[in-house]
Automatic annotation (TrEMBL):
Residues 10-126, 411-527 form the Response regulatory domain. It comes from the Bacteria. Residues 171-391 form the Histidine kinase domain. The lineage of its organism: Bacteria, Pseudomonadati, Pseudomonadota, Betaproteobacteria, Burkholderiales. This is histidine kinase. Pfam families: HATPase_c, Response_reg. SMART domains: HATPase_c, REC. It catalyses: ATP + protein L-histidine = ADP + protein N-phospho-L-histidine. InterPro entries: CheY-like_superfamily (IPR011006), HATPase_C_sf (IPR036890), HATPase_dom (IPR003594), His_kinase_dom (IPR005467), HisK_dim/P_dom (IPR003661), HisK_dim/P_sf (IPR036097), Sig_transdc_His_kin-like_C (IPR004358), Sig_transdc_resp-reg_receiver (IPR001789). Its EC number is 2.7.13.3. The modification 4-aspartylphosphate is found at D59, D461.
Amino acid sequence: MIEDDSSDCSVLLIDDEPFARDIIAHGLAPCRHSLHYESDPERAIALARDGGVTVALVDLRMPGCDGFEVTRRLRADPATEHLPVILLSSEDNPEVKARAFETGANDYLVKWPDPRELMARVRYHSGACLARRQRDAAFISLRHSQEQLAASQSALHQAQKMEAIGQLTGGVAHDFNNVLQIIGGNLQLLKLVGAISDAARGRIDMALAGVERGAKLSSHLLAFARRQPLQAVVLNPGRLLHEMDEMMRRVLGPRAAVITEIEPGLWSTTADPNQLNNVLLNLAINARDAMAGSGTLTIRAANAARGAARDPEVPDGDYVMIEVADTGEGMTPEVLQRAFEPFFTTKPTGQGTGLGLSMAYGFVKQSGGEIVLRSEPGQGTSVRIYLPRSAGEAALEEAPPRLPLLGGPETILVVEDEADVRVSTCGILSALGYQVLEAHDAAAAVAIIDGGRHIDLVFSDVIMPGAVSALELAEVVRTRLPRAQFLYTSGYAEGVLTHEGKLDASVNLLQKPYHPDALSARIRHLLRRARHAPAASYFGLT
């Protein structure tokens, strides 16, 4: 007889007569198998639940718990409901056989069957059991793969949607900044040179306050779109949180508790401190509104080392984790899915712009980190920000001196394609006493430089139409006017001055819309520096 080695059969024999084990073992000898014997039906049923058995041979007539009852119990248990059962009986009675199949048996053998028949029946039922288990495992694996695919498709769809919204908001913010610059520049020019009454001055100040609000809105839009040039420096988040503690308490109000937990030895990270400050402030405001002015706000900062347990959305690496958690009303799954979208808010009209979380999302992504949002209705909300660890040490910042509005006799070349922006900017600089030249694009600016005019500083927009780019203009200035300073301005400088969204520290950029005070201070700073700095070291293009 040829031995079968195609598969292993794991046979459980349940019989109150020990000699039955020897008979079954002899009958199955040619077949590769493992045989487990148990005389106690209760222990046998427990053994079958382990999952290793592929077929059960059950004696029909046993004291206490007969084969019918054993079969019923096996069928009633989810762990063994599909285990093949072969009833062994000395009764070749059709009624008994019928009852056996009604009870749930898969087969019926009269004692003692020919070894060939026994082996064939055991192999058949054991093979069917293994095939069923493989099929079930394949279905589970397929369902798991489908769930993973659905989750990946949902994440991809969300990422594509956020990217599309980001591109739209970035373009809108750019044009919006130019409009704000026209309005704000002309209003400031009126204040500088116009003989206006106190009433008119009050109206102008109100309008300028509106311009500032618009500038903040535009800044948030650009942050969400990841098109906000970041002035990233190495900073200590713990120090920043300590400095913000009093402000957080004022934002939350007297009825709310603020708990700050900062891990000793907190690592440094590289980020824009002003933007990070804005993000944390917006998260605190959201928490205050979610808690209706009362509750507990917990701010934690901790090291998240490579390989340590963290949120599954975060890739492996060393991070500084900052968490802002509240005990507010929480979010439903539907709201949670849209929480990062700009202008999406559950607050009543006029009580929120819906830009707080979207701005945080854009800033963190642009900084190379991850942001994780967790929330359940009635359980509060947790926002965790993971920023990559920096190998450098944070430097102590010195507060810049507050300078009055100053001008000078120097010559400034203003390069701006938006005529209304150019006119208002030139008017402000002229009112400050500067000699002002103007060009509508970079090519016209090059022509002025080639004409031999003395120029102390070039103030140029970044994004302009024409054959010559702002960067090419900067190179012309570097080579032909090595003592001149170069100051960029833009409402949207993605991909031109920034590298991976971060602005080089040596690049001088004044973002639109800019205030005359900021413009005056930046120009005076650069012109003073020119007197002491070597040629061609002025704007990071050496």
